[in-house]
Amino acid sequence: MPSTRTLIISLVVGVVHATGLLAVALHLGYAVSPGEYSTVGIGWRYGGLVLVAALPVWLALRYRLATPLVALAITTSYVLGMELLPPGPTFRDAAELEGLAEPTGITIVEDGLYIVRYIVNASVWTVGFLFLGLVEYVSRSTWNALPTGREAIPWLSIPASRQRAVAVATAGGIIHAVVMVWFAARLGVTFSGGREWTLYLFGAIGMLILAAVPLYLLVRHRLLAPATLLTLFILLNVQAEFTASVEDPHALYFGAWFLYLGILLIAGGIEYGLRRIDIYRRVVSRL
């Protein structure tokens, strides 16, 4: 069946993608071999590295959605370029940097770790690529200039019914919440007043709402701006983890999600207002 063949091709590309990145990482001396992780860790990291490539390929082959595949190509090229082009990663003992006489056994990597961070954060990239594909899918039904997909998603007509829109928004919100809570925990996001469980409960609820609202507006009312901005926030959030920084954008995203929700709602309101005037209609008709 064509769908089975598409799935197999996507998985093969995902395995090749993961194998290539892992081979480069091992060549550079990074500790990413299976012996470095538990069984769950191997599945999460290696499986995530396969899925992050397989999903965009599947969306491209099955529904002719190009943006996730383009985003994947840019991200992978960036990671490989930063690792393989000069200056490349440099491994130093912490004692050398601190001016100590005795080695500490703690290795500091300079100008590197791009592949390692890409591997460990693959799930966040996958969510970003998934939402990017959904935005493109809805855009194709809104702008006449964009080519239609090879086939429509059977269970997602645009605009979707209220029940279907709620189901899509809920599913997307749960996926976003699970991955972003894990992301926050991995980065060690904490609350200055203690009681981290309150922060994570507040953040988990917020992550669900933050994704569910723009996704509902996207598939139900074809408002593109909120979901597009949400996807941009996710991708910029995880991209910032490639470089070490004192400021962690995910801490703000996770703890102050209501600010981001306000931005998304404002963007949606502006888009809705433009749709009510002739200027928007003329622009869309020309596109």
List keywords for this structure.
2 strands, 2 domains, two-stranded antiparallel sheet, 287 residues, mainly alpha
Question: How would you describe this protein?
Answer:
- The structure is a single chain.
- The protein is an all-alpha fold and 287 residues long.
- The protein folds into two domains: 1-111, no CATH class; 121-287, no CATH class.
- The protein has helices at residues 2-28, 39-63, 67-84, 94-98, 114-120, 122-142, 162-187, 196-221, 224-239, 249-255, 257-275, 278-286; strands at 90-93, 107-110.
- The protein has a two-stranded antiparallel sheet with strand order 1-2.
- The longest helix has 27 residues, at 2-28.
- The chain is globular, with a radius of gyration of 21 Å.
- The model has no long low-confidence stretch (mean pLDDT 86).
